[in-house]
Amino acid sequence: xxxxxxxxxxxxxxxxxxxxxxxxxFDRRGVTWRALNLPSSQRGGDPLADLDQDAVRVADACEVxxxxxxxGHSYGGAVISxxxxxxxxxxxxxxxxxxxxxxGQSATDASREVRVRTELDAAMELDGDYIRLDPTKAASxxxxxxxxxxxxxxxxxxxxxxxxxFRSARKGxxxxxxxxxxxxxxxxxxxxxxxxxxxxxTNEVIAIESGHCPFLSRPSQLCEILLASSTDGxxxxx
Length: 238
What we know:
Layout: E1 5-9, H1 20-28, E2 33-35, H2 51-61, E3 68-73, H3 75-83, E4 90-96, H4 107-111, H5 119-123, E5 124-127, E6 130-133, H6 135-143, H7 148-157, E7 161-162, H8 163-167, E8 179-184, H9 192-199, E9 204-208, H10 214-217, H11 219-227
Parallel strand pairs: 1-2, 1-3, 3-4, 4-8, 8-9
Antiparallel strand pairs: 5-6, 6-7
């Protein structure tokens, strides 16, 4: 059987660059993958870019031969949830430390289902139609379990995020494909208690001892989880 193409959807303030190390793991295994840049995370982009525009960008990236697997990180979980009904060749979905808003909810709504202030909250700074991150606080929130070299590299590339992307509600309905949640137990950006709530909206969950960005701190482990076709008996952690 032909292997699916993995479509990698980054979280807020990030870009296609953030999948560098996971992409290298895929390449070593001969796996086809694509990473894209979301309109809502572009410096100098449309300040009104929202969840819908991001979802359309993902759907466009899925126009490949064969099936696709959507992988959404953090805010990217909201994006793949919105995009799924637009993708006709969708095999399955994977959420990595992600928000999974229900229909009618925004990413912000989902993030408030468990009221826990995180280090990421402390790093956010409002700037007109955008939210920026204080780089002196972002590194600890996002990359605390990465090497110093990787953390410095990633922090230097962080972008802005439109308010509209966080505030726009999901309209796309659920689709009948398997879904998996990768819960990061050491996360300082999206609290693990909130991730437990999000994980209940998927078919199965795998918990790993990782911070918010395992594609940078544990790319080989994440790659193996993404390539595994099934996790027998996996359940949402309590």
